[in-house]
């Protein structure tokens, strides 16, 4: 098999339609090269000659194993510790000081990718809440990134945005064969639960949250899907709770029940 196989418009259209139905993700024609690039290794693995053959394979996959692999490859997003730091500042300065002492404070990172966001939240809560109990849930559609997140094991490049005091307090530096990596402290890892959730389907019973982070995922959704996803999340947000989206996203025309309190930060009345 050659080192390149081009994807034609019909084949790309098949993946486009499937990904929209499965995950609500809208792939623009500009993403054609990305789809081909990310799936090419799988064509090689199965010694297939075309993306159409691979599509047929995942559609006929009874155990759904390869279907999940394809989904993982097409939905993985770039992330890093304390991304969009103003959101963490807002939590520290305005939300956490109001937390009811002694009552469980819960935060959901609804598109948690490889875990940097939920661990950043966990560090923020651990630093601010004292004896008040807390819990962080991290969810993603990709089983592959969740497996990575659960390990809490990152290369040094991944932690460049982590403030030095938090790095010293919550991370173990790799030695020997693990040199050049860090491991999130086990006590902190144990307080973050990772579960697979497709925001495009009925949500599992997760309980209620004081804060939901829904960042850098709606950029992939069309207006209708955005509205449906936010409508699904809102019953899980406590009254007075905060929904935090990315600075590059907006709820304009998506939901009118939430009150904008700061750029990209909304409160449930």
Task: Describe the structure using short key phrases.
CheR_N, 2 domains, single chain, EC 2.1.1.80, 18% strand, CheR_C, Rossmann fold, 269 residues, Chemotaxis protein methyltransferase, 3-stranded antiparallel β-sheet, 10 strands, Chemotaxis Receptor Methyltransferase Cher, domain 1, alpha/beta, 7-stranded mixed β-sheet
Question: What can you see in these coordinates?
Answer:
- The protein has 269 residues and is of the alpha/beta class.
- It folds into two domains: 9-75, Chemotaxis Receptor Methyltransferase Cher, domain 1 (Orthogonal Bundle), CATH 1.10.155; 85-267, Vaccinia Virus protein VP39 (Rossmann fold), CATH 3.40.50.
- 39% of the residues lie in helices and 18% in strands.
- The protein contains ten helices and ten strands.
- A seven-stranded mixed sheet has the order 6-2-1-7-8-10-9, covered by helices on one side.
- A hairpin with a 7-residue loop joins strand 4 and strand 5 (181-184).
- It is globular.
The CATH architecture designation of the largest domain is 3-Layer(aba) Sandwich
| Rg result | 20 Å
- Provide the β-strand percentage band: 15-25%
Please summarize the sheet with the most strands.
7 strands, mixed
Coarse morphology: globular
Figure out the total of helices: 10
How far apart are the first and last residues' alpha carbons, in Å? 59 Å
Q: Percent range for helical residues?
A: 25-40%
Number of strands: 10
Q: N-to-C SSE series?
A: HHHHHEHEHEHEEHEEHEEE
Structural class: alpha/beta
| CATH class descriptor of the largest domain | Alpha Beta
Please, how many domains?
2
Q: Mind telling me the CATH superfamily name of the largest domain?
A: Vaccinia Virus protein VP39
Per the CATH scheme, the topology name of the largest domain is Rossmann fold
Enumerate the strands of the largest sheet in spatial order, edge to edge or round the barrel. Answer: 6-2-1-7-8-10-9
Low-confidence stretches: none
Mean pLDDT: 91
């Amino acid at each position: 098999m050659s080192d390149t196989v081009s994807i034609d418009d019909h084949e790309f259209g098949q993946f486009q339609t499937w990904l929209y139905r499965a995950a609500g993700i809208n792939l623009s024609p500009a993403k054609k090269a990305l789809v081909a690039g990310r799936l090419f290794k799988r064509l090689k693995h199965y010694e297939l000659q075309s993306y159409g053959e691979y599509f047929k394979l995942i559609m006929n996959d009874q155990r759904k194993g390869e279907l999940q692999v394809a989904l993982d490859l097409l939905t993985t997003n770039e992330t890093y510790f304390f991304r969009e730091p103003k959101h963490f500042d807002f939590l520290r300065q305005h939300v956490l000081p109001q937390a009811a002492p002694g009552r469980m404070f819960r935060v959901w990172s609804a598109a948690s990718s490889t875990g940097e966001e939920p661990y950043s939240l966990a560090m923020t809560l651990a630093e601010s809440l004292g004896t008040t109990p807390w819990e962080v849930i991290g969810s993603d559609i990709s089983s592959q990134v969740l497996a990575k997140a659960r390990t809490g094991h990152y290369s040094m490049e991944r932690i460049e945005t982590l403030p030095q005091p938090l790095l010293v307090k919550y991370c173990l530096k790799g030695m020997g064969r693990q040199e050049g990596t860090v491991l999130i402290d086990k006590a902190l890892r144990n307080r973050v639960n990772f579960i697979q959730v497709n925001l495009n389907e009925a949500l599992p019973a997760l309980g209620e949250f004081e804060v939901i982070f829904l960042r850098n995922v709606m950029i992939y959704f069309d207006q209708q899907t955005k509205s449906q996803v936010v409508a699904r999340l809102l019953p899980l947000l406590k009254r007075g709770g905060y929904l935090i989206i990315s600075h590059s996203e907006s709820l304009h025309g998506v939901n009118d029940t939430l009150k904008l309190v700061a750029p990209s930060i909304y409160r449930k009345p």
